[in-house]
Amino acid sequence: MTHWFHRNPLKATAPVAFNYYGVAAGPPASKICSDLRSSRARLLELFTDLSCNPEMMKNAADSYFSLLQGFINSLDESTQESKLRYIQNFKWTDTLQGQVPSAQQDAVFELISMGFNVALWYTKYASRLAGKENITEDEAKEVHRSLKIAAGIFKHLKESHIPKLITPVEKGRDLEARLLEAYVVQCQAEAQEVTIARAIELKHAPGLIAALAYETANFYQKADHALSSLEPAYSAKWRKYLHLKMCFYTAYAYCYHGQTLLASDKCGEAIRSLQEAEKFYAKAEVLCKEYGETKGPGPTVRPSGHLFFRKLGNLVTNTLEKCQRENGFIYFQKIPTEAPQLELKANYGLVEPVPFEFPPTSAQWTPETLASFDLTKRPKDDSLLQGI
């Protein structure tokens, strides 16, 4: 399934030495700076380490974030911020706008940007795991959970931390509400795809599968809508993917809804539902081709080459032919001119993001440690970008 999920590139960042000569005035401060430097470097390395698993990622992320919290929060749990919050300038690129970096002299910006990359890592891990041959039930569960974790991180950043930034987020940047909403909803939709595949495998009721597919199509439409006002030069490819997935799962909904109608002896309506499934599947095929021809961030995936995609085409054709045969021999019902309304609501299988919180401030931060930082001097900015 690696060629089934569209993935934007990871963010890149400038290296941060945390060398505050004259500012880090004592051994405790020097130790904190050294640990920040090494834990940040370790986390950046893991983003591209194919052997990294969720446990390794969580441990590395918690290690860095707990140390970084001392640059953000006061140690007495008051609403005051740390005196070190604005000591360091951080630079990060965006997933859609290439190597043009954003910079803010704010540790909250670093917390959000690194957290964003952690969420992206979970989506890429899920995609990589789903692409294995003969994926097991446990691996499918891990794909499902990884996507829900990613959704939870994106949601937490959007709701709890981005509002704390002093510098407004530029339009079209990763930390803007529209983009974060698209990432959250896409993760939910992709996790529901795992649920649908499982429901089909276990031959659950067609009504349940139709409802899940309809909800998933709506998720993709919602994500696409969030991106609709962005600059097409960098959002067009991503939007094509979201649109084709919306059409694909709408076709699934109409296909399984048709099966439900047939089981209720509504053969004429079933045929009309299957005809609508055929129409949306054809749209998805066209969009797959257009997606492949559209330039933009991220490697081009090939959904139309995926077995899950091709199976639906065969299922729609075979089910429609079955309905037409049944109508010719048994029902003799008139086929409606209007497609049935898909007012389907899934009662099971809907995906909610896994709630996320950053770890508390590291125990290494004590009043003595904080006091050993003297802010009469400022560090020099290191402006060289470190690619990820």
Can you walk me through this structure?
The chain is mainly alpha-helical and 388 residues long. The radius of gyration is 25 Å and the shape is elongated. Strands 1-2 form a two-stranded antiparallel sheet. The chain starts with 26 loop residues before the first helix and ends in a 17-residue tail after the last helix. The chain has ten helices and two strands. The longest helix has 32 residues, at 232-263.
Strand content: under 5%
- Name the poorly predicted regions: 381-388
Helix content, binned percent: 55-70%
Topology, number of strands: 2
Q: Report mean pLDDT, rounded to a whole number.
A: 89
Number of continuous helical runs: 10
- The succession of helices and strands, N to C, reads HHEEHHHHHHHH
Q: Give the N-to-C terminal Cα separation.
A: 24 Å
Shape estimate:
elongated
Rounded Rg: 25 Å
Identify the strand order in the major beta sheet. Answer: 1-2
Structural class: mainly alpha
Largest sheet: 2 strands, antiparallel
Family: Belongs to the BROX family.
Organism: Felis catus (Cat)
Protein name: BRO1 domain-containing protein BROX
Pfam family, one: BRO1
